[in-house]
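Retro notes
What went well: the complex prediction finally ran end to end.
Inputs used:
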Amino acid sequence: MHGATGDHDDGTGPAGGRTGRGGAGRGLGRAGGDVAAFERLYRRHVARIHGLARRMVGPEESDDATQEIFIRAWEKLHTFRGDSAFGTWLHRLAVNVLLARRSTLATRRQRFQEDDGVLDGKAGQGIAHELRVDFETAIARLPSGAREVFVLHDVEGYKHEEIADLLGISPGTSKSQLHRARMALRAYLDR
Amino acid sequence: MGANMSHQWTDLLSAYIDGEQDEPTRLALEAHLEACAECRETLRELEQVVWRARTLQDRPPETDLWPAIAERIRAAGEQRDESSAEGMAGQRGARRFAFSIPQLVAAGLALAFLSGGAVWLVSRAGAGPGTEGPPRIAAEPADPPVSTATFVSFDATDYDLAVADLRQLLAEHRDVLDSATVRVLEESLATIDRAIEEVRAALAADPANPYLNAYLADHVRRKMQLLRRATALVSAQS
C-alpha cells in the first residue's frame, strides 16, 4: 500500500510499500537545511517520484514535475516532523503537486464525464492498434481521469475513498474509472 | 449468453478482484464464471493488469535533474536571504530608531527648551554675535532622511569637537547661566552622547546599510547643528 499503510526500508518495493521509510529521511532532522543531505534524499527517491510523475502526468511533463516536487519538498521540509516515513511524506506531497498541476476540480469533474466515451472507444481498440506501445506508455495514454485513478489505486495502492477525496469524485466514480482503465490496458499486457 | 449479459458480469470483475463485493454478489459471479469462458478470460487478463501495475519498475529520469533542482533551491535561498536581510535591516533600523528617536527627540526637546531659554536670554540682552535672527531650533522641519549613500560621511571629529566646545563653554560659564538651563543642557548632551553611541554601534554592525547610514548621519548632522547653535547662544550670554 502507499505510505499511509506500509513502509519498506528501500522505498522502492512493489505496491505493498512503495513509499518507503528511508534511512536518509530519518536523518533529515539532523540534516536540516543541508543541501548535500537533501541531494542524498533526492538520489534515494527520485526514481520513485519520477515514475509516479511519468504515470500521472505523462513522460513529457515528468521531468519538470519531478523538479517541482523536490523543490516543493525542500521548501516544506520544516513541516516534516519525522513521525512518519520520509518516503510517505514525500509521496503524499508529490501526489498533491501532481494533482495541483492538473486542472481545477470543476474541470477535473468535467474531464471524468468526458472521458467515459473516449475510454470506451479505446478499450481494446483505440490505442490497441499501436502495436509498439508498451504497458507504461499505454497507461500514459489513458484518459487523464482513468489514468489518475488507475495509477493511484493499482500502482500506488490508494483506496477508492482516498482517491475520491484527492480527486474530488465519488468512490463509485473511482471504481468505475478503475475498471475501465483495467479493461483498456488488457491489450498491452504482453508489451 | 448475450453480449449485454456478459458485459453486466464483466463490470463486476474489478470489484471481485479487489474483494469489494458482498457475499451474495461474489457467489453469483463465481457461479457465472464457472459457466462463462469469456468472463474467465477477462478476469484472467484483468488480474494480469493489476499484477503488472504492482510490479512496474521505477527508473530514474534519463537526465540528472539534480543540478537544476539545486540551482533553483540555491536561488530561492539567496532570494530568501536577501529578503530576510532586508527584513532584519528594517527591524534593526526600526529598533535603532525606536531607541534613538526618542533619545534624539528628547535631545531636541531639551535643546529646544535650552534654546527657548537662550532665546529668552537673547531677547532680553539683544542679539549677539553669531546669531542670525531669533533661533528656531526646535521649529526646524524634519526633512526625510537622505537615502543616498553619498551623504553618510558626517565628520565625527567635528561632532566631538562641537561637544567638547560646548562642554568647555559650560564649564567656563556655568555661573552666568541659570541652573535650570545648565541642567537641561547637560542632560541633553548625555542623551545625545548615548544616541550617537547607538549611531556608531549601528554603523559598526552594518556599515554597508545605506538607508541606516544616511538616516543616522542625517540626524547626527542635525544634532550637530543644534549643538552649534546652542553653543552660539550660550556664547552670546558670556
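What we learned: Residues 35-57 of chain A form the longest helix (23 residues).
What to try next: split runs per interface for comparison.
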